[in-house]
Amino acid sequence: MAIAKAERLMNLALCLLGTRRPLSKRELRESIEAYVEAFGPGPGAPFGPGRSALSGPSTGSEDSFNRMFERDKDDLRELGLVIETVENLDGEVGYLARRDSNRLPPITLDAEEAAALGLAAKVWQQARLAGAASGALQKLRAAGLPEDVDPYESHGALEPHIPVHEASFEPLMLACRDRRPVVFDYRKATAARPEQRQVEPWALECWRGHWYLAGWDRDREAERVFRLSRITGKVRSRAGKFRAEVPDVVTVRETVASWAGERADGTALIRLRKGAGYPLRAKAVAARELGEGWDELEIPYGHGLDAWLVEFGPDVVVLEPAELRADVVDRLRAVAKA
Amino acid sequence: MAANAIDQTRRMLSLVTYLRERPGARVADVARAFGITPDELISDLDVLPLCGTSFRGGDLLDIDTDGDRIWWRNPGALGADTAEPLRLAADEATALLVAARAVATLPGLREGDRLALLRATAKLEEAAGEAAGASSRLSVTFESEGGVFADVDRAISERRRLWIRYYSPARDQLSEREIDPIRLVSVGHTYVEAWCRRSEARRTFRLDRVAEIKILDEPSAPPEVELRDLSAGLVQPAAEDPEVVVEVGPGGRWVAEYYPHDSADELPDGGLRITLRTPDPASLRRLALRLGRDGHIVSPQDLTDSARRAAQEALAAYEGEQAEESVDGDGTAGA
């Protein structure tokens, strides 16, 4: 049975952390049992990087060792390890993880702060971030984070969860982190077909349980906000750097709030049946009784109000403005004739 | 299993630092501190004796457990500085910082808790250094009604019953009920899960739909109920709930984003045929009205009829008032 990956990574990490001088790839290969078992002892002569085109029986396993070694280093870097690549006088490349660059700076948290972080660490359900959050907490525990407080106990019965249902979340999170351009197919709210978009992703934001991406749309040469649930198919990375400058403050919520009709640019006058439409009453800026079981309300008028008012059926009659009244009548006719 | 190997490696690196300081640590205590099960810890302890700074050098970690306590017989195998706490990775800092900042935005959170979160966040940012940089590229806001949240939170900690006036969008009605609160759950919006004394059943109430709330003097006594895992979503239709079929055009695709459904099949015009289940199909009359020409309810027929009648009745109010110019549509509504 092949040696488990966690054992191999752990040994590589300890070797790199334990050494005072850079270790060559050959030394690491000979020191770590998982490599020896999978690929045999390394070739006698030192190999420089990128020299895998050498012929001979060991070339195949040399290539696979190199690939595994590169992947393993990438995995350790994901865990936060800073691995330096150093070339010695003979041109041989060596690796080490210096203590100075890998040490957690001193951090002292009191019991309340520890409980707060304990609660925060349970918020993610998304596998990668849930793993990262527990990992962070474990590093802090190792550094002396107080552990005698149960976060649920001290925070009452509070369970915040960050929902992530979109497959595009993880690749976009990594692309935002590493500032890598991406390309994906996106279907606009009312479009019949998806369209390919080339985007420099800036930031992701979750609002009311839905994820949005803000970024630079290369084809439209403008800032755009995308809803992750409308991304179809895979998110692919593009080579190269961002071309547009990333703004200091990226505002996703304001854009989305205006889509959702949260931004009102006027008011509307409606008649509402008594006892009905509590959310409309809660938003009303003025109200008066009309008698005969009806009230008159002045409510904020923004995008999407027509669709919302239609939901109340015969309990709402729009009085003003005429444009809203026509929109509502139009919608009602579509349903009445169906 | 690649993600697991990475998580396990990360955990074992912290574990050696932690165990070095605590000779004879108890399995149960260490598992709790690391947020893992004792079995997971034992499987880590099975791997650690196969690890060292150099396999050839014969300096493998001599870590051993009798199932109760953990002993490390050669802590010198790792130099003192090899076992120091490790810096946070970018993803680790991001995961913890984004979550802590999000919880701190919850309106109604106890001030003491909010301050602890903010203090912890500031310290963490400092300790993470540049690894904290990318955390600003991810943000989460939880919605909640601050006043209602604070009252529910207080009622839970003081074990008292609540009286609420609650708005049900399905019926467009307010109703009064007494509830014994169990917990607050935030998934985008914030909800209180409670035992409803009126229906004698477990119910979930969205805080922004609570029109009025009072903390009662009576003690809260919810029956012992098994807590459901609500992280996947609060709406979890039952298999026996009636089925509703909705067909929407491209402009109604949002329905599939907002309503949990069994299936959503593509239609040739770019629309969707969505099948969902709900305990109360009549509650979807609102949806039928809202969709207008962007879609319609295919079944049950009762629901289609009641939406049509409601629209006709609503139109009568407009047509009765004045003869208005025809704003007839172009008839593209899929009927």
From TrEMBL, chain A:
Domain WCX: 267-336
Highest taxon of source: Bacteria
A Pfam family this chain is assigned to: WYL
Residue ranges of every copy of the WYL domain listed in the record: 169-232
Organism lineage: Bacteria, Bacillati, Actinomycetota, Actinomycetes, Kitasatosporales
InterPro entries noted in UniProt: CBASS_pafABC_assoc_protein, WCX_dom, WYL_dom
PROSITE patterns, sorted: WYL
Name of the protein in its database record: WYL domain-containing protein
UniProtKB/TrEMBL annotation, chain B:
Region (Disordered): 298-335
Segments forming domain WYL: 148-214
Record-annotated WCX domain positions: 241-315
PafC HTH domain location: 8-125
Protein name: WYL domain-containing protein
Organism, as annotated: Streptomyces flavofungini
UniProt lineage: Bacteria, Bacillati, Actinomycetota, Actinomycetes, Kitasatosporales
